[in-house]
Design brief:
Blueprint (H helix, E strand, L loop, with lengths): L1 H39 L8 H30 L4 H18 L7 H27 L1
Length: about 140
């Protein structure tokens, strides 16, 4: 019974890897399409600020996808997920939000909350790295 559950679990993880890889590939194609379209259209070789922010956001989403893919790949190889990978993904995702956030519209509570979360993630990452280096 346990081996059946493990096989099903591995099958689900394998399907998730394929879907995530497909998402990363399609996101990369979309990023390229958006940039090329904006560069080609008039005025040529000028990209407006909104397009740049959208491109950065999509780029960082792709990076988050790659980090998730690394985590899942680690799970398939080692049978467990390295906690520092999860923290890295969370830091990148929060960084994405901070980079694309319109600070004129953001409330003080939101910014303070994001700062606290980022500080906490950085502290956890630091502790995990120190702990892993001792081994």
């Amino acid at each position: 019974m346990l081996s059946l559950i493990e096989r099903i679990e591995r099958g689900v993880v394998f399907i998730l890897v394929i879907l995530l890889l497909l998402s990363v590939i399609l996101g990369t194609v979309e990023l390229g399409r958006v940039l090329i379209t904006k560069i080609i259209t008039a005025p040529r070789f000028l990209v407006d600020v909104n397009t740049l922010f959208e491109s950065f956001a999509l780029f960082l989403v792709i990076v988050v996808g790659l980090e998730l893919l690394k985590s899942i790949k680690s799970y398939l190889v080692q049978g467990s997920i390295n906690p520092s990978f999860v923290i890295e993904v969370a830091i990148i995702a929060l960084g994405n939000k901070l980079i694309t956030l319109d600070f004129k519209e953001a409330h003080t509570e939101l910014l303070l909350g994001m700062a606290v979360i980022l500080f906490g993630l950085a502290a956890i990452y630091f502790v995990l790295k120190k702990f892993n280096n001792r081994d």
